[in-house]
Amino acid sequence: MATLNGSPAGLADVQALALTNYGHFTTMVVEDGAVRGLALHLDRLVDDCRTVFDAPLDAEWVRECVRREVGGSAGRRTVRVTVFGPGLDLAAPDRETRPAVLVTTRPAGGVAGPLRVQRLAYRRDLPAVKHVALFGQLWMRRRARLAGFDDVLFTGADGLVSEGCTWNIGFVDAAGTVVWPEADVLPGVTMRLLRSAHGGHVTAPVTDGLLRSMRAAFATNTAIGVRVVASVDDVVFRTDDPVVTALREAYAGVPLDRF
Fold this sequence. Notes:
five-stranded antiparallel beta sheet, alpha+beta, nine-stranded mixed beta sheet
């Protein structure tokens, strides 16, 4: 299903998004009409709209668009809210365009097993913005998977770890402290909720040496929650760490907000 500004979306309605690939989005797992971190998702959309389009976005209107799509429905589903400009001119993207709200849904995935990831050098454009320009990320994911890994972990030109293809990464050190990379990354909603719900978190530049000293690693985003990372390149981590288990429990305990 897809709706644009609360009404069924046709091919012509989303043609500009397909041809220009310019916009931003957020993805949520909706459970019986409610979602974790709703305010953070809405704030992201409002802030990113100001950055991408230099335009305001009515958060209440976004809620209404999602409510029309999933309000009152039972079960779990993944909902993506994409903000783009239907009238965007490819030759003159500086011209004012009124952003539109596209809501799409798909079945929510189940629990996934541990990830084996490969480090590759890459930095997303505008790392703090969850934009729709995914070519570079998916190219890197493809390279990692063709090399026999499950996914890719990005590093900067300096070799410091930053983020995964579509997820944040965290580590657990020998003392049980959660360590997040100090780098330009997307401030993921799941990561932010975990830092509020579970204590003992720090940020640090994750060098190769620091990575090799960690006892556990995990990936986070809305679709996967907290997923164990079994290895990064040749570095193997324990997959039954109690801190990662506690993070999963803390995330499951975050209250759901209704649309």
